[in-house]
Amino acid sequence: MLTPRERSRPSSFFGCLFFACLLLSGIASSTPSITLSRKSGPPTSQILVSGSGFEANVGVDIYFGTKDEALVVTNGKGEFHEARIHAPRSSFPGKHWITALERNNDKGAQEPFLVQTDWSQFRFSPEHEGVNPFENVLNLHTASDLQLKWSYYTGRFVYSSPAVADGVVYIPSENATLYALKASTGALVWSYTTGAFVFSSPAVVSGVVYVGSEDHNVYALNAKNGALLWKYPTGDRIESSPAVTDGVVYIGSLDGYLYALKASNGALLWAYNAGGVDGSPAVVNGVVYIPSLDFNLYALNARNGAFLWEYTTGEAVLSSPVVANGVVYVGSLDNNEYALNASTGALLWSYTAGNWVYDSAVANGVVYVGSFDHNLYALDAGTGALLWSYTTGDRVQSSPAVANGVVYVGSFDDNVYALDAKTGAKLWNYTTGDWVVSSPTVANGVVYVGSVDGNVYAFGLSHDASQGEEDSKRPDPRTLRPNFRLKLGGNTREDPGSETSEDE
Description:
This protein is mostly beta strands. It contains 2 helices and 40 strands. It has 2 domains: 4-116 and 472-479, Sandwich (Immunoglobulin-like), CATH 2.60.40; 143-466, YVTN repeat-like/Quinoprotein amine dehydrogenase (Methylamine Dehydrogenase, Chain H). The chain is 3% helix and 43% strand. Strand 14 (203-205) and strand 15 (208-212) form a beta hairpin.
C-alpha cells in the first residue's frame, strides 16, 4: 500500500525525464538549505524558516519533528522567506529537528532547534510571577518521582535562588563567590569571587550574568566564562536581586536607593531614594515597583524614575512584589499580604497571616505566599479568600515557584516541598542538611534549590525526558507525511503552539 507521500509523487519515469530536461537546459538545481530566525527557545516559540536551493515554484512542507507545520511555495529562484511555524507546546527540552521538504519528493534540508524551558532570573521574569509557563516534564503525576540528580558543595551557606540559562545553573554562595555549574551534571564551569557575601539572586540575559554583592557592587559577567564586563558601586550592601528588562538593570541597595543601570555598560540612568531596598523590584508595562525598609511600596516610571504612587504598610517590606493582571501583590513584616491596584496603588484586599509574610507567586488566579508562621498559603487572587494552607515544620521565607500544576517551596525545617497547586496536598519532599531559604527554580524538567548546608541541589526524573539535553531522533525525510489539510502559508489551527495530534 502506498504512503501519502508516495501517492503524491510523480512516476519514476516522469521524474527522471524532468530531471534530464533540467540538466539539458543547464538549470541543475543546487543543494537545498534552510535558516532559522532563532536556534533555541521554549515550547510555543515562533520560528521563521527561510530556504534556498529548492526547485522553482514548488510546494514545500515545513515540519517540526514529524509534525507538518506549514506549506509554502518557492519563488522562481527556488527560495522561500520567513515561513512561520511554532515549537509545539508538548516539545520536551532538548534538540528537535526542523525539516523543509518538497512535497512531491524527498528533496529538502534540516536544521536543529533546541527547546529550553529556562528560568533566567529571580522569580522567572521581571514581573516576578514566579511561574514557569513552559514546564512540561514535571507535573502532578511525575513530581512525586523526583530524585536527586546531583549536588554541588560551595563551602558556605546558599541563600540565593538559582538562575538557569542555556544549560548552565548560576548560583551565589555566602563565600562571596558566584558559581556557574553544568545543569546536567553539576560540574563547575567557572566561578567568580566578589569582595563579600552574595545573597542577591543572579539574572542571565543576552549572555550576561547580573548580580549584586555585599561589597556594595553590582556585577555584570560574561555568562560563558565569568569574565568581568563591568561593575557599578553603590553606597551599601546589595541583597536585592536584579530585574533586567529592555536593556536596563533595576536593583536596590541598602544605601536607600533603587538604581537603574544600562545593561550594556553599567552607566547610571537614574536612581531613586526609597529608604532602603532589600527585596527585588518588579518591572511591568513601564513601571517599576520597589519594596522598601521604610514600610512603603513605591511605583515609579521605569524610564526616568519619576514618582507615581506609594502605599504604606505597617512594617518593613522585605518581600519582592508580584504584578499580575493589573494587580500588585506584596507581603510585609506587619504579617499581611496586600493586593494593590497596579495603576493607582489603591488597596484591593489584604490577608493577615500569623507572622511575617514574604515573597509570593501568582498562577491561575491564585496567590501563593509563605509566612514565618510555618505556612504556605493559597489565596484567591481576586478576593484574598483562603483556599488552602500547608503547614511545614518551621518558617517559610523561600519564594514559592509554580510550574505545571505544582508549587515548590523551601522551609526552615530543612525541606524543599512539591505541593498540588489546587489542593495543597504534598506530592514530594526532600530533606537537606539545613534551612532552605533559597527559592526553588524549575527549568527543563529539573528543580534546582540551594540550602544553608552549603549545597546546591538538582532534582529530576530518572527517565530520559527529564534530562533536558537528550537529542530527539532526527527524522528520515522519506518517512515524513504531508498534511494535506494545510492551507498555503500557514497552519490549520488558530494556536500553533497547542497540541492536538502527532507529537514528535
